[in-house]
Amino acid sequence: MPLIKLGAPQHDTLGGAAHDAAIIADPFTTLTDDQPLPAEGGAIVSLTRFRKDRDALLARNAPIGVLLTADESPEQLGDDVHRLSVVVIQFPKFRDGRGFSWARMLRTRLNFTGEVRASGDFLYDQINYLLRTGFDAFDSNFTLEDLNRARLEMSFAYQPSADGKKTIRDLRSGK
Amino acid sequence: MYRYDEFDAKFVAERVEQFRGQVQRRLSGELNEDQFKLLRLMNGLYLQLHAYMLRIAVPYGTLAAKQLRMLAHIARKYDRGYGHFTTRQNIQFNWPKLVDVPDILADLASVEMHCIQTSGNCIRNVTADHFAGAAADEIEDPRPIAEIIRQWSSLHPEFVYLPRKFKIAVSASPHDRAALRFHDMALEIIKNEAGEIGYRVLVGGGMGRTPYLGYVVGDFIAKPDILAFLESVMRVYNQSGRRDNLYKSRIKILAAALGPEEMRRQVMREFMEIKQKGTLQLPAEELARIDAYFAPPKFEALPDEMPKGGKDFENWLKTNVHPHRAPGYAIATISLKPIGGVPGDCSAEQMDALAELMDTYGMDEIRVSHEQNLVLPHVKKRDLPAIFAKLSELGLATPNAGLITDIIACPGLDYCDLANARSIPIAQDIAKRFADLDRQHEIGELKIKISGCINACGHHHAGHIGILGVDKKGVEYYQLQLGGSGAEDASIGDIMGPGFGEHEIGPAVERVVKAYLTLRKDGERFLDTYRRVGMEPFKNMAYLDQLYAAH
Predict the structure, then answer these.
(1) Which residues contact B112 (CB under 8 A, 6 or more apart)?
(2) Is the pTM higher than 0.90?
(3) DSSP H or E stretch at residue B374
(4) Model-level ipTM above the cut of 0.85
């Protein structure tokens, strides 16, 4: 599946994050729990495997990512979260909204600055929520046009979230 | 009343176009029904037994005349000439066509209304005391904070795909007219010992298959902190609410599993973080700005005298007119429970005529109550005879508010895809049995609530007499529950025993009422007598003739 990756955010007048997005080849290899580590290059592993092989994984001279299922809170990563380049959040079914909270938590509580990638079952109609809660990469067949169109469907938002977008209240008070 | 500013207006307008796009993608086949279902539900569109059903939000139950006129227009143009007011202060139309729905939404947007989050696993339309801003006993108007919650909860990026639906109610008086303890989350506006106004926050109430009363999680939340606190509860729920079983996914199940202490601990952890960040704090200016929209209308200095009238008028005064905070004014309940009618139904002609009544006598305001009635919150006592006369012409002057024929009923198997049994014909049958007004007054306050399935949209758990329709091998049966209350003395009704057939439930209710009249002491309501004597005497009477106890 293609990987859509957002560039650094360029905050627009509303503080919403407009990004240069690109469809790229995934630089990481996602490993099953019994697959041997590749000699080089980035690797994404499950939380279980990360815990088991932590030292070996961190000793590799290559970026590392962890895939969290919807049941796994990013807090389970502890301080190691800051040694990761990618956290992949799995959506088992598009109606399961825990991932939105996990991404927001990574950004606003854990101050994670690496890539937060959405994977699994999510819809075009959820792109805006994904962007707002802090995702910046998608394992998805969306086109870049989809991404931009979805982002522009709703100009304003009432709530602060992880993207720093100005809220309607901010705009009302001239902030 | 609240008025949209440019941001609110654009928000709703864009949401209409977003939904129009979703409908087009469904019609073109790009979206499958499973995907579309979730998207249409987020916008109040159900697929029922016979047709689509559109649920329109009436935030905190407040409508202006032009909004009611628009609902009449929609009833005529897109539906079958009537609408149905619900137990969550919303209105439903039962026969819209899918292709028309985007246009209906655009019409609604033109009068600052919408269907956002009237269904789906998200934060639903916020409800409030239907006497808000008028009641003699309230601490302050609960609608400003309800409006703030409406905005905060609209398309919240983190909380649109919750484990299950989430209902919030607000009330501000010691008399709970909003069924607070039966809500996923409820705000009770209170005054502390220092005389400051703040919020007591309850979490974990609910009806459905496993009813619970909510418990207090926030004892006294200061006004600027309230959104931070609500967001904290939502975080705990979104992260930890069950998703493995539809029937165990409401916050009431999580709240019961965690218990008050652990729930508080988890909520407080989130709260301290959010509060410290400050982004959800409500500054005094913002509170004042929203408050200003709900400033009470200018009340004239009037003599506080109730006009006299004939027996019918006097009867209506007794039950349908309530004390107002301003001398010379009153609150009038418009019963949508004519004997033999469908609880909550209102025709387009009635809506238009009511809008006119609002222009002339009602200061442009009407309320929808969770008991499926309408309320004129600010009328002059001296205008009551004229209002009563007009309502009588319209068939809207049934003098039964709070009496045994003021029955709450869900749409049931006549409309609803989830129902196991019909509710409306049972409500109609019971109302006819007790149609005699003297008898109704003799019985006094008695709240009957009927649900056609375990989901409890008819609030049967909170009925003094609750009736639950069940299906047994293709036959409809009705279980009786006694002793529930949705008021400040909230309680969950007790199940009596085996159900009654559709022709037996009416007579059984009559026998239960007869038992009450025999057992009651002076001044006792049905509920008081039940609480004093318990189930046994009622049960004996209800099953008097074992022939009736079919199952």
Answers:
(1) B2, B3, B4, B8, B9, B12, B67
(2) yes
(3) strand B374-380
(4) yes
